[in-house]
Amino acid sequence: MCNLYSSARSQDEIRRTFMVDRDETGNLPPLPGVFPDQMAPVVYSTDGARVLTMMRWGFPPPPKVGTQPVTNVRNVASPYWRPWLKPAHRCLVPVTSFSEYADTKPRKTPVWFALDESRPLFAFAGIWRPWTGVRGPKREEPVEEEHRLFSFLTTEANGVVGPVHPKAMPVLLTTREEWRTWLDAPAEEALQLQRPLPDEMMAEVARGPRHDGIA
To answer: Which family is annotated (predicted)?
Structure first.
């Protein structure tokens, strides 16, 4: 389960890479470590325009499945997730690297994965929704309001991620055509992107810290 990622490129590079028409984020610094329940940038499409905005990471869980926010979504056939798979509720989550934890002793070690050592931008295949309630990181004061929440799809692990986390990996989108398909195509076409990235298209780039900057 991916519960830590980095979005460490500049605001201007995110806008250019994802062909953003409107930026609502204000002053967006690089984010070398994004954790669940934190605010992070996403790109969604509305009225034919791509909008860069801030949303909070983690959907409310399905009924009777506990209280923790759901950061990763695998079972897209579930009736709980189906309404949020329509184009209006899909988004791109800008990423430069993501982390899975190696089962080392005495404590687990973050292992970072990216497209290559230079950590170019790519996107998680995200979904988003409005939700009213109390949310926010524990070290901050949680806020009761209408939040916009996002999560992202996972799939089976490839040969790069699998030795560290064999159960799953995020769905990575790396081209403008994939980004367009995920934002705008019908669900049956967009969900064909829920597959592991080929091994040769990514690499392990770091081990250790709970953040990852540009090398």
So the answer is: Belongs to the SOS response-associated peptidase family.
